[in-house]
Amino acid sequence: MSIVEQTSVDAPEVGVSEATAGDFLALLKPRVMSLVVFTALVGLVAAPVPLDPILASISVLAIAVGAGASGALNMWYDADIDRVMSRTARRPVPAGRVQPGEALGFGLFLSLLAVLTLGLAANWLAAAVLAFTIFFYAVVYTMWLKRWTPQNIVIGGAAGAFPPVVGWAAATGSLSLESLILFAIIFLWTPPHFWALALFKAGDYGRAGIPMMPNVAGEASTRRQIFAYTLLVAPIGVLPWLLGYVSAGYGLVAAALGAGFIYYAWGVLRMKPSDTAMAPAKQMFGFSLIYLFGIFAAYLVDVVAARVLASGAFL
Ligand code: HEM
Ligand SMILES: CC(C)=CCC/C(C)=C/CC/C(C)=C/COP(=O)(O)OP(=O)(O)O
């Protein structure tokens, strides 16, 4: 083998991308973002304006691309800590399949594409709120709060709460109390959702040096805070019915889901230190996803049913 051939065969692989389309898809955090996009869709459909299906589809697609882009930017910046956590070590950047520059370029390009598309197709208020949401998650939460304070996900959770506001703004060109209540539901839901996971992944966050609540305030305090936020989110979940935005059907579903959420949080609160398997925290995390999906699905069904009934289309 000549020297030239040998050099090319033995060349270090730094800077060489082995990325597949699947790796770029993984950068978009599709599973998490599917529920984010669903909440945006509900905000868009709930808005009291006639729905243009083409405009609505483009808007939801743009929000999905923007949400995915923020995930790619998060994975670009967090590659160092993702590398040392068991849950995230196999992600494309820490595993070396996608180069950091590729993830950054991909995230920036998709962010720009999403914001411009939403601005041109819907309106610039919606585009501005989407841009702010991407900025809040990728910069304020990821680059600052996450590594700095155990309140990281309380404040940073605002990013995850904006999508229904973006959806509502895309449909109406304005903000409203109703969309802000949808915001409040997600905002108050985020701490129980995430701290339940952080309880059984505390080792990961400790290794990565991230000040998540269980690592800083301890397990007992985190369990109490989870319970407190759950007591707050349950009544706020029912508020849209009490304010007359949706029917008692939604109210009943929200009350039942809220009661279930409190039940699981009670299980977490009463966890024994000997419960090393963390079963109540795992169940709480699982139920958090059912809770948020259930609340927004009930909202969607309620507003669509109300419109069908009002138009007499069922007759
Ligand atoms: C700052 C806010 C949030 C934080 C820190 C957070 C954190 C996490 C983490 C660490 C996971 C573990 C799964 C994984 O590794 O991908 C997860 C799962 C999940 N999160 Fe969140 N989350 C937040 C907000 C949200 C919001 C707003 C939604 C939806 C509206 C959401 C929906 C989901 C879903 C659907 C999963 C399950 C994904 C799966 O099945 O793999 N999260 N979250
Ligand atoms: C429309 C739009 C831009 C939406 C963005 C919505 C948003 C901010 C969702 C947050 C979801 C999430 C996975 C947070 C975890 O970050 P993490 O870095 O703590 O979790 P990780 O350790 O799994 O990376």
From TrEMBL:
CDD domains: PT_UbiA_Cox10 (cd13957). The chain crosses the membrane at residues 32-49, 55-77, 98-118, 124-145, 152-171, 177-200, 226-243, 249-269, 289-310. It comes from the Bacteria. Pfam families: UbiA (PF01040). Pathway: Porphyrin-containing compound metabolism; heme O biosynthesis; heme O from protoheme: step 1/1. One of its GO terms (molecular function) is protoheme IX farnesyltransferase activity. One of its GO terms (cellular component) is plasma membrane. It catalyses: heme b + (2E,6E)-farnesyl diphosphate + H2O = Fe(II)-heme o + diphosphate. The keyword Magnesium does not apply. Its EC number is 2.5.1.141. Carbon 2 of the heme B porphyrin ring is defined according to the Fischer nomenclature. This is Protoheme IX farnesyltransferase.
